[in-house]
Amino acid sequence: MRQTIKYVHRGEIVELANVAPTTTVLNYLRYEQALTGTKEGCAEGDCGACTVVLGELANDKVRYQAVNACIQFLPTLDGKELITVEDLKLKDGKLHPVQQAMVDANGTQCGFCTPGFVMSLFAEMHSDRIADRAHIDNVLAGNLCRCTGYGTIIDAAMSVAQSGVRDSFHEQEAKSIALLEVLQKDSGLRLTWQGRSYFAPKTIDELTDILLDYPDATLLAGATDVGLWVTKQHRDLATIIYLGQIQDLKNIEKQDNGLKIGAGVTYSDAWAPLAELYPDFGELIRRIASTQIRNSGTIGGNIANGSPIGDTPPALISLDARLHLRSKDGPRELPLEEFFIEYGKQDLRQGEFVEAVYLPFPKAESQFATYKISKRFDQDISAVCAAFNLTLKAGKVEDIRICYGGMAGTPKRASKTEKAITGKSWTDSTISNALSRMEEDFQPLSDMRASQRYRMLTAQNLLRKFYIETTTPEIPTRIVGERGLANA
C-alpha cells in the first residue's frame, strides 16, 4: 500500500508524508500552511467557521461538498480536491462572486464566521439544486453567526442562487477531473507515524485482511463522532482504518423487496432515496445535522457507534431493517434491533464490520412516522427520537412497531406498549390504556438534555400524536414555516 497522502490543491497534486494520522485538516491549514482564513470556533463540527470544500469524482463530474475541517483527519483528503477560502480570489485580485455578493449585501459584521458561510455558499453554487429560501436555510443551518447577521447573509445567498453565475472552478473542471482520475488509480493508503498506523483500503477484501491483523483498530467513516474523540477527549488512536475509499460500501441498491444501503453511504446521499420511500424518514435526515455533517456522516456509522441517541436506528428498527455484517469468515445478517445489546455493547464479533443495512419497501397498508425532539431545531442531538410503523386491518391493529431513542441504554422497542395495542381497535381508548404500559418498557435517565419525567411524558405524547395524525390528519400537528414541514 502507498505511504504518502495525495490530494489536489490549486490545480496541482500535493503529496505529504510523515504526518500524524489524527492531525485535523483545520490544524494543518492554519499551522502548517498558514491558511488562516479557515477558523476554529468549536472544534466539534457545530459552528461552521472551519468549513472547507472537498471535490470528488461523481458521474464524470466533480462534486463539491462543504465539510467541517475541524473534525476531518488530514489523511482523509487523499484522492480528493481541497478548496479553502483563500483559493476563491481571482487571479486579477477580484473577489469571487460569492464573496462579492456578501459585500454587496453587507452580509458580514465581525467577520469571524464569514469564510465558513462563503465556503458553504460556494459549494451550493456548484450544485444542481434549485435554491429557494427554504433550501438556503437548510444549506446554512451548520453556519452560526454570533452577530446575528443572518438576514443579510441570506440576501447574499439568494442573490448568488438567482444569478446563475459561473466561476473559474467551472472553467477548470476538466483539469480537476483529469487530476482526480490520476489519484483514483492509486492503491490504498498506509501511513505509520510514531507507532501509530492509518489504513485506507480500497476494497472490502483489503479491509477484512487488515482487520484480521488489527482487530482492535478504530474504524473511521465520516469522523463526525471519532473526530471529537481527538479534538475534545484528546484520545490517542493507535490504529485507524478509514472506510471512505471503499466504493462497495457507498452503494445504494434497489432489490426485489427493499433498499440495501451501504454502510459508507452518507446522510446526504441517503436523503433522497429514503425520502422517496418514507417521507418522514427524509425529514428526519434533514434534521439530523448540518449540511457539513450530512456530507460526512454515514448511515453505517450512526448504527455502528451504538449510541442510544442515534437518530436513524429507531426509524430503521420500526421498519424492520436488517443489518449486514462481514468479516474474513464471511457475511452475517441479523435484525437491526438485535445488534444493540446494552449501552456501549453491540453484537459485533472480532474482525467484523457493518457492511450494509437492508430496509424493506413500504407496504400499501402500513403507516409510518418518526419524530425528533431536541432543544434546538436544527443540528442538535435528540432528547427523544421516536418511530412508529402501523398496519391496520378492518380498523384493528394487525401490527405495530414502536421504537425510541434516548429512552434506554440502546435504541429500544416498546414491546409491552406494542402488545397492549396489537389486535385492538385503533381508538383513543386503546392508546390511553397503552400509555401506562410504556412505564414498564422504559426507565429513562435524567441528563443535560432532558429529565426522566420529560422523556417519559414526551414519549407517551408522541404515541398520541401519531394516533391523531393517522386518524384525523386534518388536525395540524407539525410546525410549518418557511422551511416547510417540520419533524417535531
UniProtKB/TrEMBL annotation:
<dbReference type="GO" id="GO:0005506">
    <property type="term" value="F:iron ion binding"/>
</dbReference>
<protein>
    <submittedName>
        <fullName>Xanthine dehydrogenase small subunit</fullName>
        <ecNumber>1.17.1.4</ecNumber>
    </submittedName>
</protein>
<dbReference type="InterPro" id="IPR016167">
    <property type="entry name" value="FAD-bd_PCMH_sub1"/>
</dbReference>
<dbReference type="InterPro" id="IPR016208">
    <property type="entry name" value="Ald_Oxase/xanthine_DH-like"/>
</dbReference>
<dbReference type="Pfam" id="PF00941">
    <property type="entry name" value="FAD_binding_5"/>
</dbReference>
<feature type="domain" description="FAD-binding PCMH-type">
    <location>
        <begin position="191"/>
        <end position="364"/>
    </location>
</feature>
<dbReference type="InterPro" id="IPR012175">
    <property type="entry name" value="Xanth_DH_ssu_bac"/>
</dbReference>
<dbReference type="InterPro" id="IPR036010">
    <property type="entry name" value="2Fe-2S_ferredoxin-like_sf"/>
</dbReference>
<keyword id="KW-0274">FAD</keyword>
<dbReference type="InterPro" id="IPR016166">
    <property type="entry name" value="FAD-bd_PCMH"/>
</dbReference>
<keyword id="KW-0285">Flavoprotein</keyword>
<dbReference type="InterPro" id="IPR036884">
    <property type="entry name" value="2Fe-2S-bd_dom_sf"/>
</dbReference>
<keyword id="KW-0560">Oxidoreductase</keyword>
<keyword id="KW-0408">Iron</keyword>
<dbReference type="InterPro" id="IPR036683">
    <property type="entry name" value="CO_DH_flav_C_dom_sf"/>
</dbReference>
<dbReference type="Pfam" id="PF00111">
    <property type="entry name" value="Fer2"/>
</dbReference>
<dbReference type="InterPro" id="IPR014307">
    <property type="entry name" value="Xanthine_DH_ssu"/>
</dbReference>
<dbReference type="GO" id="GO:0051537">
    <property type="term" value="F:2 iron, 2 sulfur cluster binding"/>
</dbReference>
<dbReference type="InterPro" id="IPR036318">
    <property type="entry name" value="FAD-bd_PCMH-like_sf"/>
</dbReference>
<dbReference type="InterPro" id="IPR002888">
    <property type="entry name" value="2Fe-2S-bd"/>
</dbReference>
<dbReference type="GO" id="GO:0004854">
    <property type="term" value="F:xanthine dehydrogenase activity"/>
</dbReference>
<dbReference type="InterPro" id="IPR002346">
    <property type="entry name" value="Mopterin_DH_FAD-bd"/>
</dbReference>
<feature type="domain" description="2Fe-2S ferredoxin-type">
    <location>
        <begin position="3"/>
        <end position="88"/>
    </location>
</feature>
<dbReference type="InterPro" id="IPR006058">
    <property type="entry name" value="2Fe2S_fd_BS"/>
</dbReference>
<dbReference type="InterPro" id="IPR001041">
    <property type="entry name" value="2Fe-2S_ferredoxin-type"/>
</dbReference>
<dbReference type="InterPro" id="IPR005107">
    <property type="entry name" value="CO_DH_flav_C"/>
</dbReference>
<dbReference type="InterPro" id="IPR016169">
    <property type="entry name" value="FAD-bd_PCMH_sub2"/>
</dbReference>
<keyword id="KW-0479">Metal-binding</keyword>
<dbReference type="InterPro" id="IPR012675">
    <property type="entry name" value="Beta-grasp_dom_sf"/>
</dbReference>
<dbReference type="Pfam" id="PF01799">
    <property type="entry name" value="Fer2_2"/>
</dbReference>
<dbReference type="Pfam" id="PF03450">
    <property type="entry name" value="CO_deh_flav_C"/>
</dbReference>
<dbReference type="GO" id="GO:0071949">
    <property type="term" value="F:FAD binding"/>
</dbReference>
